[in-house]
Amino acid sequence: MDETRPLILIVDDVALNRALLSDVLCDKYNILEAKNGNEALLLLREKTSEISLVLLDMVMPQKDGMEVLSIMNKNGWINEIPVIMISVETSHSLIEGAYSLGVTDFIGRPFDEMVLMNRVNNTIRLYAKQKQLSNLVLSQIYEKTRNNSMMVTMLSHIVEFRNGESGLHVLHINTITEMLLRELLCRSNKYAINRDDIGIISTASSMHDIGKITIPDAILNKPGKLTPEEFNIIKGHSLNGAQMLNSVPFGKDEPLMKHAYEICRWHHERYDGRGYPDGLKGDEIPIAAQIVSIADVYDALTSERCYKKAYTHEKALEMIHNNECGVFNPLLLECLDAISSRFVVSLQTFDWGKQADKDFFYIADSMMKDKAHPIYNQTFRQFINERKKSHFFESMLDDLLFEYSYTPAVIRFSSMASQKLGLPRTISEKDDKLALGANAENWEKIQSVVHQHPALSNDPIQTEVTLTVDGKSTPCKVMLLQIWENSPDKKSTLASVYGHIDILH
């Protein structure tokens, strides 16, 4: 069997009919045969990703063609595998029923061999093209979400750096916001948000303090108590941030920009109307801003600042409930209590390197529900499952692994590699090398390794380099696997490199 040829499943209870179809198609296609509906369903379940087309008889014992189609719909196979129904039964109601269950084409018996071959060829080519387009869309969505998350993260960390904070504040806000949103959706449908908004609002939360970039350092990082005049200047960061976002000449109608504006402007409003800058009250405050305001206050209380020590988790919750930091939505306080023990663990194990994947999963999940594009569904599910598996197996290995992408130029280390090499989980080539400290040389050497093999290779590449591992200069063997993609002009482009670092003792 030539594995490069498409595989066709012929389903018919008459052996002669199967033989006739097989004789017509076997020169160009690999053939599987099933003599009834039950056999067909077993083969479909076993070889879902391999079968390119089903030729299905209508009238069969055990399960007929309509029953097979119904089960294919139930299992989602019809979205991935085209079906041409072949039958002597050609009544209008029967053909209409078959099309309503998702068949791509209907051929009556007896048939012309040339007509059959052409319609089979066209159907397989059409579905192959649709899969190619869906994969292209999938790739573009993933790159967009990854780039958006990276841009938001870098911008937020610039603000954090000026604000004298560790950089964890943005990550904590993101995590708490996501968990509060999930709990709120479980408890109430009061607000016009859904599961598809979770990733967008969580990402937008990272920009809540972007307006602080306009505040003078002397005030922003003053260790003592602020004067009333200085506090008024600090309070201006919410309006300043909203105005900055509003002045961006594109994307104003995008949900990310809409939520980011609401959060920037109103995350210091309070439920009793005593917040700023606009004195909004109750649900006049957008729910995204209400949620981020609680996350912001909690993390501010439990983090050390130049003007205060960190409070304990329990003390912070007590102060929030006692209205010592302003009044909050009672429903959101219930959500906070419900998740309080869980988000402490989440804050300790947060991995920003997976954030772009999370955003992508939200978007993919939304697209999978889009009935206008059913062909995408199975492809999306397979892609997501593969990424979940790769993350799972990576987490089970105590190996030094990394993934380097060229567009954008970013490296992501496994937890063990990050720990052993003394580098962050995710690094962009645009990052300041000085910020990486003593181990910046590790990053420069790995950059050199991945860039020194521009020639097309589908086989692993091996090289040796000396790296600082656990603080000691250590000879290492680096194994690289290049991932090449074909661009529209059919030129091969190096998209990414997977690496394994082996310590040579």
Characterise the protein shown here.
The chain has 505 residues and is of the alpha/beta class. It folds into four domains: 7-111, 3-Layer(aba) Sandwich (Rossmann fold), CATH 3.40.50.2300; 135-162 and 354-395, no CATH class; 166-350, Hypothetical protein af1432, CATH 1.10.3210; 397-503, Beta-Lactamase, CATH 3.30.450. It contains 17 helices and eleven strands. It has helices at 15-25, 37-46, 65-75, 92-100, 113-162, 168-187, 195-205, 217-220, 228-246, 255-266, 287-302, 313-321, 330-348, 355-368, 376-396, 415-421, 440-451, and strands at residues 7-11, 30-34, 51-57, 83-87, 105-108, 400-406, 409-413, 426-428, 461-469, 472-486, 492-503. Strand 6 and strand 7 form a beta hairpin.
SS-based class: alpha/beta
* Succession of helices and strands: EHEHEHEHEHHHHHHHHHHHEEHEHEEE
What is the beta-strand fraction? 15-25%
Q: Could you give a short account of the major beta sheet?
A: 6 strands, antiparallel
**Radius of gyration, in angstroms, nearest whole number:** 29 Å
Q: Number of DSSP strands?
A: 11
The pLDDT mean sits at: 80
List low-confidence stretches.
352-357, 359-364, 370-380
Q: Which CATH class of the largest domain is shown? A: Mainly Alpha
- By DSSP (H or I, 4+ residues per run), the number of helices equals 17
Helicity, in percent?
A: 40-55%
What is this structure, in a nutshell?
50% of the residues lie in helices and 15% in strands.
